[in-house]
Write a structure and sequence with these properties.
Largest sheet: 2 strands, antiparallel
Shape: flat
Number of domains: 1
Order of helices and strands: HHHHHHHEE
Number of strands: 2
Helix content: 55-70%
Number of helices: 7
Radius of gyration: 18 Å
Structural class: mainly alpha
Oligomer: single chain
Distance between the termini: 40 Å
C-alpha cells in the first residue's frame, strides 16, 4: 500500500513535466496545458490505487457535467460582457476560461481525494490564473471570476451526478434522463434532459 502514494506523486510529476515542456509561442504559454492538469488528476489519480470518492465511471460523469456547466457559464459570459483583453487582441476577457478550467479540476480533485490533494490542485490553479494576468491575457478580476465560476461548475457537476445516482438507486423511480436528437438540413444536435 505504501507504493500507491508514490505512484500518485509520480503521476503528478509527469503532468508537471508535460506542462513545463510545452512550447511557448505568441499565444501558447505553460498555462495553456497546465489548466488541464487538475482535471486529469481528478480523473486518473484513482487509477493509481489511491482511494477516491467514486469509481472511474462516476468520476468521468462528474468531470463531464462540470465541463458542460463551465462551458455554458463561461462562454456565455465572455460574449455577453465583451470585455477587451489587456493586450487588445480580443474582446472576450471576462471571465478567464483557463482559470475556470483549472479551478474546476481543483475542486473535483478536492472532492474526490480529500483536502491535501485539493491544496496542491488549488495551488496549481492559482498559478494558472496569476500566469494569465502576468502574460497580459486577463485582468485580475477576470481571473477571480474564472476561479469562482470554475468551482461553481464543479459543484454543479458533482450535485447533478449525485442526484442522478439517487434517482437511479431508487427502484421505484422512472428513468429521468432523456436524449432528443434534432436533425435538419443545416445542422444537427443532441439535447440531454435530466429531470430531478
Amino acid at each position: 500500500m505504501r507504493k500507491l502514494p508514490l505512484l500518485a506523486l509520480g503521476f503528478l510529476l509527469l503532468c508537471t513535466q508535460l506542462v513545463c515542456n510545452a512550447q511557448r509561442s505568441e499565444y501558447s504559454y505553460w498555462e495553456t496545458y497546465g489548466q488541464y492538469v487538475p482535471l486529469l488528476t481528478a480523473g486518473f489519480l484513482g487509477c493509481t490505487g489511491l482511494e477516491s470518492h467514486d469509481t472511474f465511471g462516476v468520476r468521468a460523469l462528474r468531470i463531464g457535467g462540470a465541463l458542460v456547466s463551465e462551458g455554458v457559464i463561461v462562454k456565455s459570459l465572455k460574449y455577453v460582457v465583451d470585455e477587451e483583453r489587456p493586450d487588445g487582441r480580443a474582446h472576450n476577457s471576462f471571465p478567464s476560461g483557463h482559470t475556470a478550467t483549472a479551478f474546476n479540476g481543483a475542486e473535483l480533485v478536492r472532492y474526490e481525494y480529500g483536502t491535501w490533494w485539493g491544496v496542491g490542485a488549488y495551488g496549481l490553479a492559482t498559478a494558472v490564473g496569476l500566469s494569465r494576468v502576468y502574460h497580459k491575457r486577463h485582468y485580475i478580476w477576470d481571473v477571480g471570476a474564472g476561479a469562482l465560476f470554475g468551482v461553481l461548475s464543479a459543484r454543479i457537476g458533482i450535485q447533478t451526478v449525485s442526484k442522478i445516482q439517487e434517482k437511479r438507486n431508487n427502484k421505484s423511480a422512472e428513468s429521468n434522463v432523456s436524449f432528443y436528437p434534432n436533425i435538419s438540413l443545416n445542422e444537427s444536435s443532441l439535447y440531454l434532459a435530466v429531470k430531478f
